[in-house]
Amino acid sequence: MAAQAQVEGRYLGGRPPYGYQLADAGPHPNQAKAGNGKRLHRLEPDPKTAPVVQRIFHEYLSGIGVFAIAQRLTAGGVPCPSAYDRGRNQHRSGVAWSKSAVRTILTNPRYTGHEVWNKQRKQESLIDVEDVGLGHRTRLAWNPRDQWVFSDQKVHAALISREIFEQVRARLASRGPRSTGRVTERKKHPYALKGLLFHESCGRRMQGNWIRERAHYRCRYPNEYALANRLDHPLTVHLREDVLLEPLDTWLAQVFAPGKIERSLTAMEESQPDHAPAGAETRRALGECDRKLARHQAALEAGTDPALVAKWTRQVQREKAVLEAQLAASDAWTGADRRMTAAEIRRLVDAMGGLLQVLRDADPGDKLEVYRQLGLKLTYNETTRMVVAETQPRPSVCAVVVSEGGVAH
Predict the structure, then answer these.
(1) Given CA atoms 88, 93, 96, 97 in this order, what sign does their dihedral have?
(2) Hey, which of 8, 103, 121, 301 has its CA 20 to 30 A from 203?
(3) How far apart are the first and last CA of the chain?
(4) Which of 327, 232, 225 lies closest to 279, judged by CA?
């Protein structure tokens, strides 16, 4: 296929780039495939979208930025790529042109008339390492540019010249971090509220963002989408994690305060539930955790990626910690096969009342697990600087006012 792309310039399939459409190029040279009705295809300019591609290149070279080009196209009523071909882009909104769509067009060398192959590869990974029978998950990954295969000659009508493409490429390179010799190093940071914090204006989840050694959450809404939706949404909304955690943990400790949970604990004591089957099930689950850890160790020794094995191990260890806590609680209730005394109930209540201190000292990953178990949902309004916290297990709601100087609730 590399030789076919480079020497023959043959179109090898895939979605045609925006600005082109597929045209028939005659019968397939392989007689067997031709006998089955298969034919070759080639790219030819789309009369509706090809002028848009040429406009994007010329406006960018005239000094107009990527975002300004996207705004102009949206304001002019030009359908974006996902809106123009809705049949294959139902997963996209198709509302407006985005900066990423414009940049993708500016970096595609196929507009020079040359065929390009091997830009991406299929990458497979196990769906579940514990159950190989579930099969693999296939995803596309980008290959380095030096592995791309270009045709030796032009094989379809060019929308822009090679000189224009190289000028655009040089300008794009001069505006990125590589042009200054900077190296971007990505690190994974823990977030205690990952996936739990929503922005009220647009209803989307706020994403974790690490700024000046602190965990933040942000909602970044590109202007082109805000303008197209007539939504008054700031470009970026930020909220610091540490400003929110203190009142949140305080509220949760109040919810689980002794005065509020003693009644339910007393009811549990009077009902005398039989926890023996549950304890046996928990012990079986703990044994399975130990077996998983042993398999992970064997996978590591067999050469599996250490980072992947570490991730699996942390998941099993968290599961094991929860099971051990459940088993300890079950043993406390059923240990002597008798009713708990009032003093024992009080000690258990006091232990629950210490949830605030536990949350304050806990690792962010452990805090996140606690919040998820409580069914926590947080909604932030940047205008009022208020966060509304809700938990599904209980109909409790807490309003938290957030400011840079501190937090009131």
Answers:
(1) negative
(2) 103
(3) 65
(4) 327
